[in-house]
Amino acid sequence: MESEYVLKEGWAVKESGQAVLGQTNWRKRWCRLVRGQHGTSWSYYRKMDDIPSNQPAGRIELDSTCKTMNDHMF
């Protein structure tokens, strides 16, 4: 099993992409920035209860060209 650790996690608000009568819907998602043996990824979940099943609603794999403002802290 791969060793991972959470760099940051918390609630974020994202645009749903579906406008109803010109109104954009915004949805709250639980997000995690995780660093593991194979790199860093950003995942978001519809609710915190989805984390143990490791079924994110979305995931972005980040490569070495992506840097955070506080990268020197890690």
TrEMBL record:
SUPFAM superfamilies: PH domain-like. Gene3D superfamilies: Pleckstrin-homology domain (PH domain)/Phosphotyrosine-binding domain (PTB). This is PH domain-containing protein. InterPro entries: PH-like_dom_sf. It comes from the Eukaryota.
